[in-house]
Design brief:
By secondary structure, the chain is of the alpha/beta class. The protein has 17 helices and 14 strands. It has a six-stranded mixed β-sheet, sandwiched between helices. Strands 5-4-3-6 form a four-stranded parallel β-sheet, sandwiched between helices. β4, α6 and β5 form a beta-alpha-beta unit. The protein is globular.
């Protein structure tokens, strides 16, 4: 890899892994998964980073950075910006090293992650909720470091942090060898790119033939758009639903590593829709008993797109399990939309008497198996003299074919309509 930076080698990453105290960083299980293997017709294993003490791989990068600091750098105190998991990593590492710190978290951060950060940091960490996005919060953190001299612990754009995240794939390589299995692909979530970059650096030496797949959420695909632009690119707007990967701009270092690996054909990037991701999360909880946060489930949601690319074993990294259960109703709603057991439809009606009655008459046979879960009529015409009626329909029996019968009835009577990707605001 021709770069302007002395990137960590597998030897460096191995030395970092050996420096981790066993009671702070666990060697997490690599578990064969029968359901996913049968579903996708490929041997699938899950790397369970959700089973770390902080329920995320982020402890690795944060601790690697804190362990590398001088006494003077620690004396000045730590500072970091995080949407949750990196905050917990800094808090746990700082408390372990008895080092004070200030952690900035976006105001959108789920309460569960804020409270977990407080628990891990104890008396050593001060938490400040500032900024509406990670990138705004990061700017305020940099400003704080300039004003106070605090030592910044970057969540992804730091060589030591990348080195720490690379220990995940180092363990995967060792575990696959011990299990005598052949690694075809590793799938990781992508936010700022630290985990993906660390995986690339490790695998180029330990498993050079393995494909590496980075998965971004739709609405926050900063790495893919940066690759397309040819330089780190800042998204003007991001969807913060996948809070652990809601980053508007990748790191300069991570972009350099990822872009070079893509040019070499070693890495591919994918995007996952919100609805598909939620369906994956729901299945993991209801069927497998695995609580994955949205970013943690990205690697599993991507499996159906990855399988045609390799016949060898595939490892999905469950990057985190810090999930606020108050979000579950929203998750289940998006899952139903993906499975088409629920649909929100905007139907154009003419502004004349009995238009609604005629619609209900035309849909009558299909409505027998459906519940109406939402309705709104907009009295402002969208085009000419046409008015949209938005209705949410839900299958009483959880069957996609009952929703399809509704759509077929709309088509049969030549209604102008469109399906919405989520419940209207």
């Amino acid at each position: 890899m021709n770069t302007s930076h002395p990137f960590p080698s597998a030897k460096d990453i191995r030395a970092t892994r050996e420096s981790f105290p066993a009671d702070l960083v666990r060697t997490t299980p690599l578990q064969p998964h029968n359901r996913l293997s049968h579903l996708h017709n490929v041997n699938t294993l899950l790397k369970r980073e959700d089973l770390q003490g902080i329920r995320s791989y982020k402890i690795r990068g944060a601790l690697a950075k804190v362990l590398s600091l001088s006494d003077e750098e620690r004396r000045r105190g730590l500072a970091g910006a995080s949407a949750g998991n990196n905050a917990q990593g800094i808090a746990a590492a700082g408390a372990f090293m008895e080092t004070n710190g200030t952690i900035f978290m976006p105001r959108i951060t789920p309460t569960q992650k804020i409270e977990a950060t407080r628990n891990h940091g104890g008396q050593w960490m001060n938490i400040r909720l500032e900024g509406d996005t990670f990138d705004e919060t990061a700017r305020l953190t940099h400003q704080f470091c300039e004003e106070t001299g605090a030592t910044l612990i970057h969540p992804f754009d730091d060589l030591k942090v990348i080195e720490g995240q690379g220990t995940v794939s180092l363990e995967i390589s060792n575990q696959m060898r011990e299990m005598r299995r052949r690694l075809g692909a590793v799938i990781t979530a992508v936010g700022g790119g630290g985990l993906l970059a660390g995986t690339i650096l490790t695998m180029r030496e330990t498993n050079p033939d393995a494909l590496i797949i980075g998965v971004e959420p739709e609405g926050a695909d900063c790495m893919a758009q940066s690759i397309a632009a040819g330089h780190p690119f800042t998204l003007p707007h991001i969807d913060t639903f996948v809070d652990g990967a809601a980053v508007a701009r990748p790191g300069d270092l991570t972009f350099e590593i990822v872009s070079q690996a893509i040019a070499e054909g070693r890495v591919r990037l994918l995007k996952i829709s919100k609805n598909q991701l939620c369906a994956t999360m729901a299945d993991m909880l209801q069927i497998d008993g695995i609580i994955a946060e949205p970013a943690g489930a990205l690697s599993v949601a991507a499996l159906e797109q990855v399988v045609p690319w390799t016949d060898d074993d595939v490892v999905s990294v469950i990057s985190g399990g810090n999930f606020d259960m108050r979000r579950m109703p929203k998750i289940l709603q998006h899952a139903d939309l993906y499975r088409r057991t629920k649909v929100f439809v905007s139907i154009i009606l003419p502004d004349r008497p009995r238009a609604l009655a005629e619609l209900l008459q035309h849909l009558d046979p299909a409505l027998e198996d459906l519940n109406i879960c939402y309705m709104n009529y907009d009295d402002e015409p969208s085009v000419g003299n046409e008015f949209p009626l938005t209705v949410g329909f839900e299958s009483k029996h959880g069957k996609a074919e009952e929703i399809q019968a509704l759509v077929a009835a709309l088509d049969a009577h030549n209604y102008s309509y469109r399906e919405l990707s989520e419940k209207p605001a």
